[in-house]
Amino acid sequence: MICLNCQYNNLESAVFCQSCGNKLPDHEGISARATPQAQPFRASAVSVEGNVVQLARRALGDLIGQTISIYKLHFLVFFALAVIPQIPVVILTMLVPELGSGFTADNEGETFDFPQLGELAGTVFVLVVATIVLSLLSIGGIIYATGQHYLGRNVEFLAVLGAAASKFVALLLVAILLVLIFLIPAALTLILIGLPVLIFAMVRLYFAFDALVLEDLRPVDSIRRSWRLVEGHWWRTFGIGIIFFLMVFGATFVGSLLLLPLDSLGGTALSSIVSGLISAIVAPFMHIGATLVYLDLRVRQEGGSVKIVG
Questions:
Q1: In the predicted model, is pLDDT for residue 105 greater than 80?
Q2: Looking at the 3D structure of the chain, how many domains does it have?
Q3: What is the Cα Rg of the chain in Å?
Q4: Domain contains 97
Q5: H and E: helices and strands count for the chain
């Protein structure tokens, strides 16, 4: 299926172009079977068997461009997935200024209202747990949705969220294992030597969630898979990660400037809501980009035939 916009040769079953995100001709009432023109850093996406597609190595510009295209095409789905974990965060942010009301002190500051503090602490704990749970579902959903896009399938919010929910236990186990792995280098950062070790490990293990969702691996195997994929490509992966991080940081910084008038007016609730919306808009870009880098690593390590579990 040839895209009339960029001449990319997609799967016959694809609804949207895997390169630029445009809706394909046959789905717009137009028929196009022309011979594709040569495209840099691209290869024909041909179904080999089952969920296997052909991909090509991608340069940084291609990764950024396709990340933007995929995000724009499925914006509402990605935004909805990203906004879910922001709900408890917003509530928690609005509660934080009230934590002081959990204490009542006399003139010497020695008397505390512990029952009120305990009640508020319980609420905060529930919100923190909810944030962790919903964040894992959000990350898993965004990864799964990106995979569905590459398979040329429709990306629907409930279906994507259901797929992420079915892998929640595995996602949680991966998260716990990563925290345990990072504990030692994180502790060593106190004597500086741990910082480079921590950065090295984070890059090597960054794609564990992608491997879990898109290859249906077990938690431990997903971590090993990420480690092997980055082997020989650490500096390139690190550099791309820095570029994506700076783009996200820049967008977040610009968005934070919008909060200044709200903060000056003392609108804590409105400020928290706007901050949550900004985070929800920015977050998918990083996760989609990471999944594209993960797929690119698979191409570089194993060739163009990439199987995506869906």
A1: no
A2: 1
A3: 22
A4: yes
A5: 12, 2
